[in-house]
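Please, structure for the following, as tokens.
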Amino acid sequence: MSKKLFAIFNVNNPPSSSSVVSVCTNVIDDNYPNDTLSSSQGSIATVESLEPIKVPEPETCDLGTLLTGPARPVLESYPKTIFGKQNRGFNSVYYSSFSWLEYSIRHDAIYCFCCRNFSIASDYNDSTFTSIGSNNWKKLSGSRGKKGNKQSKLHGHSTSKQHLTCMAKWEAYISTITTGSVHSQVASSHKLLVEKNVQYIKTLVDITLFLSCQGLAFRGHEESKLSLNQGNFKEICSLIAKHYPEFAEKFQNTTNYTSHAVQDELANLCAENIRHKIIKEIEDTKVFGIMCFKQEQMSLCVRYTVGLNIVERFLGFIDVSDKQDAESLSAHIFAYLTKNNMDTFHVVAQSYDGANAMSGLWKVQWCSG
């Protein structure tokens, strides 16, 4: 009995294309050999008596997606359905009146694109236009009787609260795709503002470099708005503002970054950048000479080679107002060179204004390292 029962698993030629479901009724357990099957209880289906049962393939959806939009096929003729004594069907004319309307050829039914994609199941009770589909073509055009005041099914759906909410969500989604999300819009606006600020500061830096290269004073005696001469820095800013509206927009603000403190900071940053570039040039040869001009602020210049050219560069001021003897001046020079990471380079020459303070064999050798 067991061989006959499990013979269904030994099919020699299984069907190739369709799915087969084998059916067996009233299976007999070998533990109960006395059990018999009567005609009323059924019989065991053998391999020869089994007929394949075809399982239909899942239907593919022919409706639109968020990427493609509503599916709105225009056919020469749509399938007809009998309503009473008339054959009725869908008409593509409805597309022009309802932007959310879409038609499924497979199901011969209409759906609402926005409700189908943006509705929330807990808040949406009517599934006619979302999952089931509507094919009651008789009610699409509304009442045509004497009164003619019965609203069509499409108009009724388009004015419902749930549909209007989904429609607003769909429009917001389209706006997001076109112009970006709120976060991206804020980020873009912030990025544009940063670019304008950077361009404005770059212009102030160029003014700082111009005045420094020309050796001109930055500030004037009176820099108020009523002053006839607000100083070179602000006067140049006013000149540029006349010809460049973007610069004028920032310059006319209350906070326009042209105060004394900002001017000093810009000058110090430019000086630091130039000093760093000079030190990078000295790194190539590792040797240089120093030239010092002693006042209460000692000027320190360096002399070195760039390729085959000899250049002299101003490096910075050193405050030596406390004491100006040889030992104090040497200590200030070494401290300044160490501060700028130049203590590993070799000083091969030195010259001083007021050499009597640095004269003497021991002092010169000690100063030259």
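Strands lie at 81-83, 86-88, 101-104, 109-112, 287-293, 297-306, 309-319, 346-353. The longest helix spans residues 182-214.
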